[in-house]
Structure prediction request, 486 residues.
Amino acid sequence: MTATLASAPSPLLGRGPELTRLRAVLKRGGPQLIVVTGPRGRGKTAVVRQALSGRHAIYLETCELTEAELLQDFRAIAHAVLGEAPTPQRPGVLPMASGLGGWLSVLMGIVDRTEGDRPLALALDGMEALLGVRRKLGGIISEVFQSARSRGISLRLILTARDPRTLTALVGPEGALGPADLELALPALPFRTAGWGHGGRDALDAFRRWAVFGDDPAHLPGGLTGGGLEASVIGRVLVPGGDLFDAPLGRLERTFQRPARYAAVLRALAHGPLSWSGILEKARGIDSGGQLAPYLRRLEEEALVRVDLPLDASPHSRTRRYALGDPFLAFWFGWVLPHRSLLSTMGAETVWRHHIGPTLEGHYQSWMEEIARRWLRDHAEEAFGVQAREAGALWGGEAEFPVAGRLANGQVCFGLTEWSPAGRDLARDMGERMKASRYGIGREARTPIFFLAGEGDEAVRRMVARVPYASVVDLADVMGPPPGAG
Prediction:
């Protein structure tokens, strides 16, 4: 008797390349070692389950249980898939005194029952939890997989972890398991995939939804709500019981021992990137750099905060700033959290319409700068025929640019963004900054790019038309066409 993992309901949005690579390795003959890593919420579990859909597989999704409970569940799952108790068929691996096999006995029993049968995938999803309850389990897994390798058994061992460093002693040239046949590090969703996946009706709406819900695949709506952005925010974020109502705080509580300190850093960064001193000034309850350093380091490890350097700085420059890695965190900590206490007295709709929605222009402007940098990094070829060699921002020197980069043909780009078209002479601003900047100095091909939101920007377009070699990129260009559009 054999069993297969139940079919997943639908393909995963934005994970096609990862699924293709994973499925290709699963089809190979012989033993295979696969490692899938990525911060919490990136979709490791969903990708593994989708890849194993319909395959002969034993899949253990770990959680916060004792070792005895995890082993009991693992033994029962293996029994259900194999149709018999997963005990070794060869001498040398003894059962426990109770007659039930320990980790080595169960794992070796799985290997023995794969011999001569069709390939079997063994997925251990969440190695942090397994190694946390049994530190020696890594050695046991290595012993079992090396046995499968030496015997040529078609076992596909899949390990997942939030941080690849968790598996350093196991995977790699010096690891007990050796190099992996496939290492998948799951990135955040591409911003276009996320924006349209959140239900964007047009490019502007797709951008707004991305700026609110972010590019974490765990935040995709999944059919939970319909309607416009207002209805989605109210139903998912502002109403108690919504799937994202407590999501950021819940993640902090699951990840950190002192979540309040981490929340203070995230709230300080919610309105835009800050220097080290800027965080110390705004983060309540953190009084010194010595206190701040470990919190920032852990937030970086969890991909909640990133460190940016200006493009013209050396790798060791102190002219750096810290920014939130996902716009949903900025929206939640900067605009939702300060108004949470009003929800019980005013109601979600009133809080949105009077306290959150009308104040979001600053949020949109900030994340329009970020999405313009990502567009230059990933999609410059659409406008200029060549890809970007580098993309980012310039600050701390003669002139500041929220967007800048260098293309593969040597062309240097300077970008300004404008969410609201009123009252700013972008052409003059661009000219003055470009004259003052040393970035790309000596090159004739210095291209100004004006990123516009697209609403009421005709006057701005006429203004920048007089700038030599200027390009205008609006949100329709940035977000690209909706999926399936001709």
